[in-house]
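[Discussion] Sanity-checking designs against the backbone

I'm trying to build intuition for which residues belong where. Below is a structure token string of 377 positions. I'd appreciate it if someone posts a full sequence so I can compare it with mine line by line.
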């Protein structure tokens, strides 16, 4: 089929239908003009808010210039896929400090693989319709301003926590993009800013990572600290991490729009039982072979066993005093790497302090009881 015979309006409608059949909750189409975001991106980089994520700065302004990333690109198809599990059990997991909290997006299969495969299938369907097509799928895999693209494609607005929020679905969804070289009609960009005066995400972020509305200092973000950071977690943030060992959902949990969060229909995103709400001590006992086996196909595998233990050590330090925790930390320390040892030593000190506090409280209670007893008791 030649391009002269293509009804692009009908094709755009068909693409959205194919997208839904492939499991995408919503599909939008936008052009490639992202120049208005270049200055903000540069300010964020200049402030050093990207931390150790050198790839954020490595490509200059290519993130805001899609045609430089993929020559010939005329349009971007933006998609979202829901991931909220049916039994997220946020409060139960976060409220029990001996339970390991893993961000709900990471409990199932790696979304990068799932969505990239579906986007590739979408590109192939378009190609079958129009003939030779230049297309390329992206899911957190290249310098792409995915949130700005999604906003421009009408999928929602960027909230003050920097995530895309949708009026009917909150923010519990992944984003992906398909760059194409055909002039599809574009959707109206999102004109609504639904956050209003709400500052819940700024106020309740455990580490104060949202430094101003729409701006996140990654260096303070628990997701960054537990996933992207290669070295030691700064001491000032360790206690604030609580039992969060991989990622953090707090800025979404407090967002009023997430009362409309939609449960995922994607089986691949359903939680794996050996990851969801497990005891910190159980996960800390995994050797590297067990870690690799139990995280196969999971986004968690990318941090490696060493950083897994680093994060868990912090969680154990934040748990209430337990002799079993102290024993596990001391045993793991014997063969740990210097990075893990640093965090084990911190955790052991936290446990010691809690033990001392417990003993002081017990002694005070005994004194109170003895003081109240009759002389001949």
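Best answer:
Here's mine. Compare freely.
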């Amino acid at each position: 089929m030649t391009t002269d015979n293509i009804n692009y309006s009908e094709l755009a409608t068909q693409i959205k239908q194919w997208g839904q059949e492939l499991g995408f909750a919503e599909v939008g189409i936008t052009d490639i003009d992202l120049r208005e975001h270049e200055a903000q991106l540069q300010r964020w980089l200049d402030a050093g808010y990207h931390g150790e994520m050198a790839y954020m700065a490595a490509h200059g302004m290519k993130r805001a210039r899609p045609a430089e990333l993929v020559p010939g690109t005329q349009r971007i198809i933006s998609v979202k896929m829901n991931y909220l599990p049916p039994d997220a059990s946020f409060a139960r997991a976060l409220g029990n400090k001996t339970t390991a909290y893993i961000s709900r997006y990471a409990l199932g299969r790696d979304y990068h693989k799932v969505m990239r495969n579906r986007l590739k299938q979408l590109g192939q369907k378009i190609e079958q319709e129009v003939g030779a097509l230049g297309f390329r799928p992206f899911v957190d895999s290249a310098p792409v301003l995915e949130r700005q693209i999604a906003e421009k494609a009408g999928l929602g607005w960027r909230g003050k926590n920097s995530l895309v929020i949708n009026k009917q679905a909150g923010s519990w969804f992944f984003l992906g993009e398909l760059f194409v070289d055909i002039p599809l009609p574009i959707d109206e960009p999102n004109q609504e800013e639904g956050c209003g005066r709400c500052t819940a995400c700024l106020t309740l972020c455990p580490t104060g990572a949202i430094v101003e509305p729409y701006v996140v200092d990654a260096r303070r973000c628990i997701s960054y600290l537990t996933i992207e950071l290669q070295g030691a977690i700064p001491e000032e943030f360790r206690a604030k991490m609580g039992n969060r060992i991989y990622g953090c959902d707090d800025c979404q949990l407090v967002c009023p729009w997430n009362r409309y969060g939609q449960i995922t229909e994607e089986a691949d995103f359903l939680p794996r039982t050996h990851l969801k709400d497990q005891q910190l001590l159980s996960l800390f006992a995994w050797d590297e072979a067990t870690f690799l086996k139990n995280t196969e196909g999971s986004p968690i595998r990318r941090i490696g066993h060493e950083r897994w233990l680093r994060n868990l050590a912090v969680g154990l330090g934040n748990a209430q005093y337990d002799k079993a925790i102290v024993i596990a930390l001391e045993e793991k320390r014997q063969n740990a790497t210097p990075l893990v040892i640093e965090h084990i030593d911190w955790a052991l000190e936290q446990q010691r302090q809690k033990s001392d506090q417990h003993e002081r409280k017990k002694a005070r209670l005994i004194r109170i009881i003895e003081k109240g007893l009759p002389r001949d008791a």
